Amino acid sequence: MSVTTESTHIADAGLPQPSTAEVRDFVALLKPRVMSLVIFTALVGMVLAPQSIHPVLAAISLLCIAVGAGAAGALNMWWDADIDAVMSRTRSRPVPAGRMQAGEALVFGSVLAAFSVVILYLVANWQAAALLAFTIFFYVVVYTMWLKRWTVQNIVIGGAAGAFPPMVGWAAATGSVSFESIVLFLIIFFWTPPHFWALALLKSGDYAKAGVPMLPVVSGEDETRRQILLYSLVLVPTGVLPFVMGFGGIAYGIASVALGGYFLLLAWRVFSRRSAEDAAPAARKLFLFSIFYLFALFAVLLLEACIARLL
């Protein structure tokens, strides 16, 4: 190898490698599965609101909320690239996998965040835009940059970020926040710990390797199971509140009680089944059912509201 060629290789080694990111990598930054839940819960908040919003404005508002959620996901992946590279379920993400430079994710997320907030302000109102901006800030700064790496309560407090979308949807339609939208917030807020801790029981080794202070890593699996049961005992009656308060109908009342009862049964199984052959299946079943539980509750509320508007 010549001296010139060798010096060129040495110089190139200190330069950032060119990006090989494709469209699908930018889509992955948006966390589409999380975004779908955000869109759905925001839609429910919007439809349940007492004031209607023009369909075109509603569609644009939902798009803004979705883009804002995607922006938060992109910024999360930018900041967490180091620990994502260590964990098996996240190491294939665009930044830790080396298909995208961290700076690209930062710029992409920042531009989308600003765009979503400004457009929501223009098509809806400042209250909805302010709530969306706060949601992005809470998820990126409060949860991702602070809580996630520093406290075992990361999911409990940070879960608020995922609970804001129905309030944003409600605010987009009404320009205000009400007790009903706060109840929708609380359902998601109390749902998040048992949902995520069930996954954490299955992935505790990953979190320990990455140095993330998740509850099973810091306090042990037995304490995690106890906390799952305690939060489930709070979640289930909270899930019935829409019926008690009158903005959920008979169908919702029946669904919330039946689904809540089964949720508690699965939480009890997670708490009580601790043998190696029973613990993981119980946690996995609760994790999967928790997704269906939240979707079903909001779907029934949406269906009832749509039927009421048609009658």
Care to describe what's here?
One of its GO terms (molecular function) is protoheme IX farnesyltransferase activity. Converts heme B (protoheme IX) to heme O by substitution of the vinyl group on carbon 2 of heme B porphyrin ring with a hydroxyethyl farnesyl side group. The chain crosses the membrane at residues 34-53, 59-81, 102-123, 129-147, 168-191, 240-265, 286-310. The protein is an all-alpha fold and 311 residues long. The chain folds into 2 domains: 25-176, Orthogonal Bundle (Tetracycline Repressor, domain 2), CATH 1.10.357.140; 178-311. Helices cover 80% and strands 0% of the residues. Helix 6 runs antiparallel to helix 7 (126-150). The longest helix has 35 residues, at 276-310. Residues 1-15 have low confidence and may be disordered.
Keywords:
16 helices, Tetracycline Repressor, domain 2, disordered N terminus, 311 residues, 2 domains, 80% helix, mainly alpha
Compose a concise summary of this entry.
With 311 residues, the protein is mostly helical.
Our count of helices gives: 16
Structural class: mainly alpha
Mean of pLDDT = 91
- What's the total number of strands? 0
Radius of gyration: 22 Å
Give the SSE layout:
Elements: H1 3-13, H2 23-29, H3 32-48, H4 55-79, H5 81-84, H6 102-123, H7 126-150, H8 154-158, H9 160-163, H10 165-174, H11 179-202, H12 204-210, H13 215-219, H14 221-245, H15 250-272, H16 276-310
Helix pairs in contact: 3-4, 3-10, 3-16, 4-6, 4-7, 4-10, 6-7, 7-10, 10-11, 11-14, 11-16, 14-15, 15-16
